[in-house]
Design brief:
252 residues, alpha+beta, Alpha-Beta Plaits, 2 domains
Length: 252
């Protein structure tokens, strides 16, 4: 018996998120575990580094599982699984890790990117992979706002909901904007993320900039919004299509 950690990429457009949900809904977990069932001849349970919502993509999702297929060499496992997957999911890499390895609890940090396009009308071929905003933002102001997120904070303001006794504190290691002509990319890395946290942050950052562009006042800093711990003080939740789980780091 061997424990595997695999790196999975998927186009989230036609999935109802990662996690298995109501019967009949197409999820990444369901198609992945179906491929593992075909490969092993019996059900194989998996552990994911972090669940993604409907429409969210991944190029660096990680999943661990136990395998009794010793006849498949380690360097062939990724291809063996991918050959049984639909075209919108692929296993990029597979490696044997210590027995009992847990993809979620052993993760040290997670990295996301969010993609925006400046365009009055969204180009159809980009509609599933970015959020179109009508005017060029002041990137320097966006960067200044984003820098205030770095550090150890209570991120209740940017969580979709507050669960009873849940720990809302996370440590953000970087939060930055990159620009190339009409394309913007927001990159953020942290020890963990709350539900909808990245999309709430980017929605708030863009809403603040659009308010400034209309001549409105932005009174509270991002730091003050964090201290408020009040979701109603933040902006909208950005569309799922622009979000990518980029990578997950482990101390192996």
């Amino acid at each position: 018996m061997r424990t595997y950690l695999i790196r999975v990429a998927y186009d989230g457009t036609n999935f109802s998120g990662y996690q298995v949900q109501r019967q009949g809904e197409r999820t990444v977990q369901a198609v992945l575990e179906r491929a593992l069932l075909e490969l092993h001849g019996h059900a194989v349970s998996t552990v994911v580094a972090g669940r993604t919502d409907s429409g969210v993509h991944a190029v660096g999702q990680y999943v661990s599982f136990e395998s009794d297929r010793d006849s498949i060499p380690e360097h062939r496992m990724a291809a063996a699984i991918t050959s049984r997957l639909p075209r919108d999911v692929a296993v990029l890499h597979a490696q044997v890790v210590p027995q009992g390895f847990h993809a979620r609890y052993r993760a040290v940090s997670r990295h996301y990117t969010y993609h925006l396009v400046v365009a009055p009308v969204q180009l159809p071929h980009l509609r599933h992979y970015s959020w179109a905003i009508p005017r060029h933002p002041d990137v320097a102001r966006l960067r200044h706002d984003a820098e205030q997120l770095v550090g150890c904070h209570d991120f209740s303001t940017f969580a979709a909901r507050r669960e009873r006794d849940a720990n809302m504190v996370r440590t953000v290691r970087y939060a930055e904007f990159l620009q190339e002509k009409d394309r913007l990319q927001f990159a953020i890395g942290a020890d963990g993320f709350l539900w909808h946290m990245v999309r709430s942050i980017i929605g708030t950052l863009i809403a603040r900039e659009q308010r400034r562009q209309r001549g409105g006042a932005v009174v509270e800093s991002m730091g003050e919004l964090l201290l408020a711990r009040d979701r109603s003080r933040a902006g909208t939740t950005a569309p799922a299509a622009g979000l990518f789980l980029q990578d997950v780091e482990y101390d192996l």
